[in-house]
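pasting input
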Amino acid sequence: MHLTPGADAGAIRAAIDRVIARGWFILGPELTAFETEFAQASGAAYAVGVGTGTDAIALALRALGIGPGDEVITAPLSAAYSALAIMMAGATPVFADIDINRLTLDPAQVDALVTPRTAAILPVHLYGQPADMTAIAAIARRHNLVIVEDASQAHLAKSEGRPVGTIGVAGAFSFYPTKNLGALGDAGGIVTDDAALADKLRRLRNGGQKDRYHHLEFGVNTRLDEMQAAILRERLALLPGWTDRRREIAARYRSALVGAPVIVPPEKDPGHVYHLFPVRSAHRDQVQAHLRHNGIETLIHYPVPIPRQPALDGIPTATCPVADRVCSEVFSLPLYPALTNDEVDRVADAVHRFSAADADGR
Ligand SMILES: *Cc1c(COP(=O)(O)O)cnc(C)c1O
C-alpha cells in the first residue's frame, strides 16, 4: 500500500541522507523550508510544524487563550483526538450532532449549544470533505467565537473555493502516516494568517522559549523533526497529483455504486479531497464479511461516537442520535492513490453482489 514509500522511495531516501549528512535534527532548515512550502500549498501566510495533529489542535487552542472554564463545540463523529486535544488544552468539548448527508457538524445543532462559556468552534473536515463553513462562520461571527479547523483529513481541500485551515483563525493538520500527506512517523502542523499567533505557536511548541534557555511562558515540547520535515517536503510535491487521483477514484466509485445496496454519502463540495470513501449500510457486519470473503478489507471510521468513549466519562453531553446511527452503519471502502481502476471496479462489483437476504440465510 501507499504507506511504504513507493514511487517516491528514492526521493525519500535522498531526503533522509541529506538530513543525516547535515547532522541537524531539530528546528533546522528542513522544517523552515517545509513550513514555507506547506503554508503556500495551503493558501495560508504561516505554517508551524509540531509533533502531532493532536498537539496542533491543543496548541492552537492554548495559543488563543482557550483553557479551563471554556467550552469548545465540536463533532461527535471524528477521530477521538479532536476532543482529546480540547481536553489537553484544559477546555471542555461540547458535542453538536452531525448532518446525516455531509457527516460533519450540523450548523443548527451548533447554534443551539452556544452558551456564555463557549469560546470556540472546532469543525472537523471529516473524510476530506469540508464542513459547512459558511454557516459555521456565520454562527461564530454572531456569537463572537473563534474557529479552529481540524483539517487533519483534508490537506489541500477547499470549502466553497477557500482553502481549509484559512477560514478560521487557525487550521490544524496531522501528517500521521495514513493521512493524505503522511510522514514516516508522527508529525503535525498549524496554519494561520495571523503573524502574532504564528510567533506564539513557535514559542509554545518549544518550551515557551524566546531565546535558548529563556522560558517566557508555559510551553510544551512538540516539534516536527528535521527527518520528517524532509520527507514531507518530498511528498508535498506529489500531493496535488495524489489528490487528483483520490478524486478520480471517488468519482469512479460513485458511478460504479449506483444501485448498489449501500448508501453513498453525497459530495457536498467539489473541494473534497477524499481521505476516505465512507459508505453506510444497516447490514454493515454482513457487508463487511461478504467483502472480506471476496478478499476486500474494509475499516470502520468510526465505530464509537466520541461522547460515548469511556475516556470522556464525566463530561455531560447531549445525545447525538445522528452520530450514533452513522457509527453503527458506516465503513470505508479502500481508497488510496495507488489503487487501480480495475481494483475499484472489483470492489464495486463485490458490493453489488451483496444481498442482505443471502447474508441472513448464511
Ligand atoms: C489523525 C487525526 C487527528 C490526530 O492526529 P495525530 O497526528 O494522530 O495526533 C485529529 N483529528 C482527526 C480528524 C484526525 O483524522
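fyi The mean pLDDT is 96.
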